[in-house]
Amino acid sequence: MVVRRDPSPRSGKEPAAGGFVAGRPDRQRGGATVLLLAMGLVIVVFGTFGAAIVAAGMARQRAAVAADLGALAGAARALDGDAAACASASDLAGRNDGRLVGCHLDGLDVLVTVEVAFTPLPGLTRVAAASARAGPVRG
Predict the structure, then answer these.
(1) What is the pLDDT confidence band of residue 139, given thresholds at 50, 70 and 90?
(2) Mean pLDDT of 95-119
(3) Which three-class secondary structure string do you get for the chain?
(4) pLDDT greater than 90 at residue 98
(5) 23/39 Cα distance (integer angstroms)
(6) Biggest CA pair distance of the chain
(7) Considering 24, 84, 104, 128, which has the largest number of Cβ atoms within 10 A of its Cβ?
(8) How many C-beta atoms lie closer than 10 Å to residue 53's C-beta?
């Protein structure tokens, strides 16, 4: 059995080359491409803002860690005075990419505040801050 094919590739209802049907331009030509590009742009924008939110959370955690360790380092030097305790806290906060913005010795307790700078979006720099307190255990 031999099956013969129609030699003309168009049946008359399909658009001819160039996107014309019976002399009119096809209005749907390229619409899916524009829709796909728009959807891709939406995904990129949401992804960028999601990454910015994650960066802010990570910076907050880094500031908290730097403040906790700075307060512990300051409490270890609390008997040496305010200057020695705050210098030790500043050193350890700096090693954790933080900047000591506040240090106070309250008896044997050390209260520190640390800031960490981060860039959530290109050209936008923000600061995350955290405070911590460390001292001897009171029973």
Answers:
(1) confident
(2) 94
(3) CCCCCCCCCCCCCCCECCCEECCEECCCCCHHHHHHHHHHHHHHHHHHHHHHHHHHHHHHHHHHHHHHHHHHHHHHCHHHCHHHHHHHHHHHHHHCCCEEEEEEEECCEEEEEEEEEEEEECCEEEEEEEEEEECCCCC
(4) yes
(5) 32
(6) 104
(7) 128
(8) 10
Q: Is the pLDDT of residue 11 over 60?
A: no
Measured between alpha carbons, how far is 113 from 131 in angstroms, rounded to an integer?
Answer: 4
Note the pLDDT tens digit of each residue in 35-91: 999 999 999 999 999 999 999 999 999 999 999 999 999 999 999 999 999 999 999
Averaged pLDDT of the chain? 87
Write out the two tokens for 121: 């979006």
Q: Around Cβ 82, how many Cβ atoms within 10 Å?
A: 14
Q: Are 117 and 125 contacting, i.e. CB atoms less than 8 angstroms apart?
A: yes
**Closest C-alpha to 113, from 133, 91, 85, 92:** 133
